[in-house]
Specification:
- The complex is a heterodimer of chains A (123) and B (251).
- By secondary structure, chain A is mainly α.
- Chain A has helices at 2-22, 26-46, 50-106, 112-122.
- Chain A starts with a helix and ends with a helix.
- The model of chain A is unreliable at 114-123 (pLDDT under 50).
- Chain B has 251 residues and is mainly α.
- Chain B is 74% helix and 0% strand.
- Chain B contains 9 helices and no strands.
- Residues 93-111 of chain B have low confidence and may be disordered.
- Classes of the chains: A mainly alpha (123), B mainly alpha (251).
- Chain A binds chain B through residues 50-51, 53-55, 58-59, 62-63, 66-67, 70-71, 73-74, 77, 81, 84-85, 88, and chain B through 50, 52-53, 93, 96, 99-100, 141, 149-151, 153-154, 157-158, 160-161, 164, 240, 243-244, 247-249, 251.
Chain lengths: 123, 251
């Protein structure tokens, strides 16, 4: 009986590990990895190692999952902030270009300098 | 193509190498001589009812000290990395925010921001109710390490998870960093100090037998093992709390 349960848990652990590898959504993958740890702690409990089971449940499935989630949220918010900064820089760039274009329009025929600036701004 | 072939070759080699190991596994009907020695002698020598604790704290006490050191180095690294990133961001952020004109600190956006980082009322009430109970459970685990399964590491993680619950319910929760660092440093030093006491008054470093073994199965028994495991629990709890604290980000 306990052998059957062990085999079942083993298959579930394998499934969880494969899911953690292949799921596209990172948060779901992290949760799948946590489930693998939880099942492993159950296996330890069944084979008679309650000390290791406690460690695995507390560190492997609880704390590691949370640390991964925290790290993921940090990475994501960093990426968002960078994207925001890029958009901001883009806006500044276009604004400067428009300014330059305006200056060029006003100062047509002022000679070489205006032309060169206009060319720089266009590319 | 070559890459895939190499991967398959490596996998086959690993499978071939591990095959005798996996095939040779049998249900052990007998303890190995070393394990039998531990099981037979630990009760008499140390008076612990949990043999695992006797091995972790006493027979392999130096390994545990190394483990605690590794954890300390990891926690110090995480804190260093995270705080370095934080100060850099603080320097960078306000400039672009200010020019952008999207100051989130005032106006209606501020309210939504606060609601998002505070967690629901249910979570806040549940965390406030559960925090002392989880904390107590963690302390119970490491104080009873010599009697029941579990010990310093497990209890410390449980304590850190209680703090984590508090942080989840309210991200702006202030933690006393000085208290955390002092607790961690003092318990670590006390751990080594108790080990040295064992060297001085008993057979060797981290020998817990300089205190009386007491009555088998009681809380105050097994020499200095409860003291050592409690110190480890406090140290691990403080370290992991520090890691969780330095990793959080309140959006």
């Amino acid at each position: 009986m306990s052998m059957l349960i062990l085999i079942l848990f083993g298959i579930l652990i394998l499934g969880g590990g494969i899911a953690a590898l292949y799921i596209e959504d990172t948060v779901s993958a992290i949760v799948a990895a946590g489930v693998v740890s939880l099942l492993a702690s159950l296996v330890y409990l069944i084979v008679g190692a309650p000390d290791v089971a406690m460690t695995e449940a507390a560190i492997g499935s609880a704390l590691t999952t949370v640390v991964f989630l925290f790290a993921w949220s940090r990475i994501r918010s960093n990426a968002e902030a960078e994207a925001e900064d890029e958009v901001f820089a883009e806006e500044m760039h276009t604004a400067r270009n428009e300014e330059r274009a305006g200056a060029e329009g006003k100062g047509k025929g002022k000679g070489r300098r205006g032309k060169r600036e206009g060319r720089l701004g266009n590319d | 193509m070559i890459k895939r072939l190499l991967i398959i070759l490596t996998l086959t080699a690993i499978a071939f190498g591990l095959y005798p190991l996996a095939w040779g596994v049998k249900d052990a009907r007998q303890l190995s001589p070393l394990a039998a020695g531990y099981v037979e002698n630990s009760v008499e020598e140390l008076g612990t009812s949990n043999v695992v604790t006797a091995i972790v704290v006493s027979y392999r006490g130096l390994d545990t000290l190394g483990e605690v050191t590794v954890l300390f180095a990891a926690a110090a690294g995480v804190t260093l990395l995270m705080t370095a990133g934080k100060s850099e961001r603080r320097k960078k952020r306000p400039v672009s925010r200010g020019k952008d004109g999207k100051d989130t600190k005032d106006g209606s956006e501020g309210g939504a921001d606060r609601a998002r980082r505070q967690g629901s009322e249910l979570l806040a009430a549940g965390a406030a109710f559960l925090f002392p109970i989880i904390w107590l459970f963690g302390i119970y685990i490491f104080i009873h390490g010599h009697l029941t399964p579990g010990g310093g590491f497990q209890g410390g993680v449980v304590i850190a998870s209680a703090v984590l619950l508090l942080i989840l319910s309210d991200c702006r929760q202030e933690l006393g960093h000085t208290v955390l660092q002092l607790t961690e440093a003092l318990s670590g030093a006390a751990y080594v100090g108790v080990g040295l006491l064992g060297l001085w008054m008993a057979a060797g470093f981290l020998d817990p037998r300089f205190l009386a073994a007491g009555e088998f199965g009681q809380l105050f028994s097994a020499g200095a093992i409860p003291i050592i495991y409690s110190l480890i629990g406090i140290k691990v709890g403080a370290e992991l709390t520090g890691i969780v604290d330095s990793l959080r980000r309140c959006s």
